[in-house]
Write a structure and sequence with these properties.
Two copies of one chain form a homodimer. Chain A is of the alpha+beta class. The first copy, chain A, contains 22 helices and eleven strands. The longest helix of chain A is centred in the middle third of the chain and has 36 residues.
Chain lengths: 675, 675
């Protein structure tokens, strides 16, 4: 394996030990890879910090992911807890802090393969929703892992629709306690991570009842396991929900509560409180209780969604420059599969999307940081827009990136299907992001509701939030583009996206109005429009993403070739969206048949242009071989040798065939005399 | 568990033990479920046989899949071999034969969860490509499992492009043997099932060399493991390729050959032969060597592709009638998620597709049976059309069904992501079908090449094969539909599909011609059109599927409501395709904007109509609970109780927490004194 242990540093001599087909791709880059990496990191000093952290973590054997693809659910879980505990020690040693600049690089490097994620959400909930006193009591305990927390919202029978949660918390004035119950099987908490086997405490969401009156869903800190021997507390039944498509290392759990009592002080009470006499007091919107979830939706995008797409692109594109198959012309050498238009059409739009989403993610994080400050100051004005943006973008980005990872996997043929390629686990992991933190269709419809409201307001000349001012734009009825180069002009395609988003919203608004005017109940009318409303919400987010990509490119340094290649990717992202959703752009004649031909021509031309820089463009993501953990995607491109060497380590090759003596030998022994 | 052990027979009393929300769905069926099942089976007597076989297999504990979701790769493999060996015994006991009518029902029931699939391909290859003498020698040995075969075609460095295979077979006149070698790492055979740990023999595909001249790829029977002790034969290195996304029960393997000698008689020689003096003789097309693969492409569709989609629909639709979430109107009970238009839009088109593909599959099997007869009589005229059809339909059906299963999985939210839902394994299994037996893009392009040839021939007034005579049709330039009911007329939508397929082909033909006339090399021109050529091939297959669905519906009995509901499904399948690919139909104005609105309206109306029969329509697939192996999809709809009961059985709940003593206890013990 020594030969194959290439590291980032080997790039100083791109040719040594590197598959020559891959090495040659790096000699012709039209831009500086190192400078693009720094752009992505937000500065070269961040790149240095990130690399130093990666080095420190990857050189530590506890964090090794070498045998990950061969481990059972129990082994994965044990290793993940070990890593989480070890990380605390490591952070102290290295002087890294939970609120320091290092933490995001640490988690990028661990790639989610560690326990106590929900413990972090537990802490964030207390920080956001807890009173100063609650923060002072619980955060130190939790941050030192002297308790292990979880976040118990989802129930067996309820997910995204929080109002329907069935767990109850009844205030007992006599004892000054809340009595928590999961009164039926569907009320059982189900899915929370870190809860099945690890957690001692959880934030349980329950319907608050005081003197028989229901005040809606509130969060309560509940101890579920003994700190002495880890046995379930009285009234608690908890366990692991069993195998899943991925996340074997996480103990997603179930929790039944039967008359479990917690003191009055355990209801998180920054924004509302039950006073000793049972009086319920609230400061600000009850919706603030959902704000943790809103921020989690945005915070998952980086590590759980966009980085996985970048990794999948890195693996698939490097492999496609090494894999040769069939001939472009008779008599020639077999061609790199990356030279086939069909392979470019699969992979390069995903690469462009990875960049597009990296930039929109930066935009969203800045927006949410501002919003968070406001909310801490008890100004809730931004909540509706933040909620709509977090819902729509969570849905759009997870859906797009999941599909992108799947395309990368399939584009690697059979070898992509081997766990050793790293692609299956990226896929099964990212797929969950379409479901957790709000099911995507439900989220799109929440965004659609906000957009329809804004559209009506804009139509009535009323002011609307900044992200939707475009709804008041007066656009031309026809796209003015005349030749294929016009479609490389951002003005042209941004307007086309804008026009399409407006048209989808306005036709939904009109249909809703038509239905209600014809006597259909408004809720039924809404349901009859939901297929198209979800589409409109997606078109809105797609438009904002394109616009933001364009604006980001404009601000880039025009030296070192970076602005130019980013412009190409931006064009590709935009034109691929038009090519793939042609019906939406052709529908009202905004684009003509002839213009759609120009889009197609321009789009296919771009594929050939970007193909030349495809490998440097994934190199710029700067993943170490260890973080990719892929036999197909390593920097040196020694794919066949690595597949073979890794396969040797499989437990299926480490012992006698378990079926031979019992089943095969008795059959085959009869043959001997007869052959 | 006794309560939950519902079986097919419980349907006689639909209400007993069944979730009332699911039971109520069955009381209003517009057709006879039992009669529709018989239609799908091709007659009630087949239904009876199928059920009897399912009963016999499912009552046998060796075939149990109860713990499947909890097993390791080694455990799955051992169980699969055990089942394969036991099946032979069972077949003898029951009087079932490999060529009898029972065999397809046996494999439907086993759902692929058994070893020795490639052993069957080994046998089929010998039957199709072997001389009478070879058949007489090898088939009895193989059919009694006195040897275990595999089919070693794919190499580490070569998949679909067979001409590029690097394994060599050099004829040694002196010894009358072939000497087989995998001369480099990329030449190693990689992926063949049953080869990693089980097989004693394989059909190895290798470039045949006689006196230094290469005659192309040929199949050779090679012994790879000793019949005495199962150790590798001299010159053979073999093993398991390690973990994959699914197929843990199959020992996909690798094989290196170093100067492995087999006698001259081991080259399969029905159609060609190396004579003792080294003379190479061929009867008929060399392409016949690929015919096994061509037939396998069609034969996998039933069990590996269409049945999984049917199962996924069954699970997701039953669950969606039980799961209630959110409210359609304030104040009402929470609604069944199947009542949301967005959920209908996800699931019902998949249901319609499952029926569409069931019917096209019947059509393809009939066509191939005819073709097989012809080829046995050494008439190869049908080969090009069969090859084009098998390529295009394999690609189209696997791609569509894979996407359908994924939609079903995601539509079940978090619970769909649990292995216990059965959906993840259906998905990871069907995903492989997009890759094995020919990568789909390559296959679409093979079909496109055939279609372009036929299109040129048709344009020149020459005769073309039956499946493409439509290319000579003279169609109107505009769709004549005037209101939304017109789009429920098969004539209207079949013509729209036909027109679109012709238009995509003709514009590709024109672009190819334009490019070559402008001086672009013909192979480069082909590459520049491949994105659109693949699309044209898909459109062709989609058209044939719609047309075949229409023709099937016309032939159905109009009694018992079956023809009516099948007509609805056919309309839905067709209109969903137009709605989802609107750009292709709007592009040249064949459909206008107003007509596209009618399509959308008609399509959305159909969702509401078919929703009423959705549960009976999946009941008609007649899967037993054991064959679904899903906590969400059982006939009785007791989803929450079953999820909870199955989770208890997970190994993660069967032992002490492996992380507690080592990692958690040391942390938490410090807490005690301080809390």
């Amino acid at each position: 394996m020594a030969l194959l242990d290439s590291s980032r540093h080997s790039r100083d001599s791109v040719l040594s030990g590197v598959n020559p087909d891959l090495a040659s791709e790096r000699l012709t880059a039209s831009f500086s890879v190192e400078k693009l990496t720094a752009v992505l990191d937000g500065g070269a000093e961040h790149t240095r910090m990130r690399r130093a952290i990666a080095e420190a973590i990857e050189s530590d054997p506890v964090f090794s992911r070498e045998n990950q693809y061969f481990q059972s659910q129990n082994e994965r879980y044990e290793a993940a807890v070990r890593k989480a505990v070890h990380l605390q020690k490591k952070m102290r040693e290295m002087g890294w802090t939970e609120n320091g600049p290092e933490v995001k690089y640490i988690h990028r490097c661990l790639a989610g393969d560690i326990a106590f994620h929900l413990h972090r959400v537990f802490m964030r909930s207390i920080s956001v929703l807890g009173s100063d006193k609650q923060v002072a009591k619980w955060i130190p305990l939790a941050s030192e892992h002297r308790i292990i927390g979880s976040y118990a919202q989802t129930e067996l029978g309820h997910g995204t629709y929080l109002q329907g949660l069935e767990t109850t918390a009844i205030f007992d004035i006599a004892t000054q306690e809340f009595i928590l119950n999961t009164p039926k099987i569907s009320a059982m908490k189900w899915w929370p991570g870190d809860m099945g086997r690890s957690a001692t405490h959880t934030i349980a969401f329950a319907q608050l009842y005081v003197r028989g009156k229901c005040y809606g869903v509130h969060p309560f800190i509940v101890q579920i396991r003994s700190l002495q021997d880890h046995s379930p507390c009285p009234g608690v039944t908890a366990g692991d929900i069993g195998p899943k498509m991925n996340f074997e290392h996480i103990d997603n759990g179930y929790l039944m509560l039967q008359n479990v009592r917690v003191p009055r002080e355990n209801m998180l009470s920054k924004f509302c409180e039950v006073q000793p006499d049972g009086t319920y007091v609230r400061w600000g919107s009850q919706k603030i209780n959902y704000f943790t979830m809103t921020t989690v939706r945005i915070s998952v995008l980086t590590d759980e969604v966009i980085l996985p797409l970048m990794k999948a692109c890195t693996i698939a594109i490097r492999y496609s420059a090494v894999r040769r198959q069939s001939k472009l012309k008779p008599g020639e050498q077999e061609a790199k599969i990356l030279d086939y238009q069909t392979q470019q059409q699969k992979l390069l739009p995903q690469l462009a999307a990875a960049y597009a989403f990296h930039f929109i993610n930066t935009y969203l994080h800045e927006l949410f940081n501002t919003g968070y400050q406001e909310i801490q100051g008890r100004n809730f004005d931004l909540l509706p827009e933040l909620h709509a943006l977090s819902s729509g973008f969570k849905a759009m980005v997870t859906q797009y990136c999941t599909s992108g990872v799947e395309i990368c996997l399939r584009a690697c043929g059979g070898h992509g299907y081997s766990l050793l390629s790293g692609l299956p686990s990226l896929y099964t992991n990212i797929l969950a992001s379409c479901i957790y933190e709000g099911e995507n269709t439900v989220l799109f419809l929440q965004t659609a509701r906000f957009l329809i409201k804004c559209f009506m307001a804009a139509s009535a000349g009323q002011p609307v939030p900044p992200s939707v001012t475009y709804l008041s734009s007066a656009n031309p009825r026809k796209c003015p583009a005349k030749d294929k180069l016009d479609f490389l002009s951002a003005d042209i395609y941004v307007k086309a996206y804008e026009q399409t988003a407006i048209r989808l919203l306005s036709s939904n608004a009109a249909k809703l109005q038509r239905l209600t005017q014809s006597g259909v109940d408004e809720h039924e009318a809404w349901n009859q429009c939901t297929v198209e409303l979800a589409k409109a919400a997606k078109a809105h987010c797609h438009y904002i993403t394109v616009k933001n990509f364009v604006e980001t490119v404009e601000k880039l340094d025009h030296k070192a070739g970076i602005q130019k290649i980013m412009k190409n990717l931006c064009d590709l992202f935009a034109l691929h969206g038009i090519f793939s959703n042609a019906g939406d752009f052709l529908y009202d004649g905004y684009l003509s048949e002839a213009q759609m031909d120009l889009v197609t021509a321009s789009y296919l031309d771009l594929l050939a242009v970007i193909r030349k820089d495809a490998v440097p463009l994934v190199d710029a993501f700067d993943f170490t071989d260890k973080s990719l953990n892929s036999a197909l995607g390593s920097y040196d491109g020694q794919v066949y040798q690595r597949l073979y060497e890794w396969a040797q380590k499989s437990p299926t090759n480490q012992q006698e065939n378990p079926a031979y003596r019992k089943y095969l030998k008795p059959l085959l022994q009869n043959t001997l005399s007869k052959l």
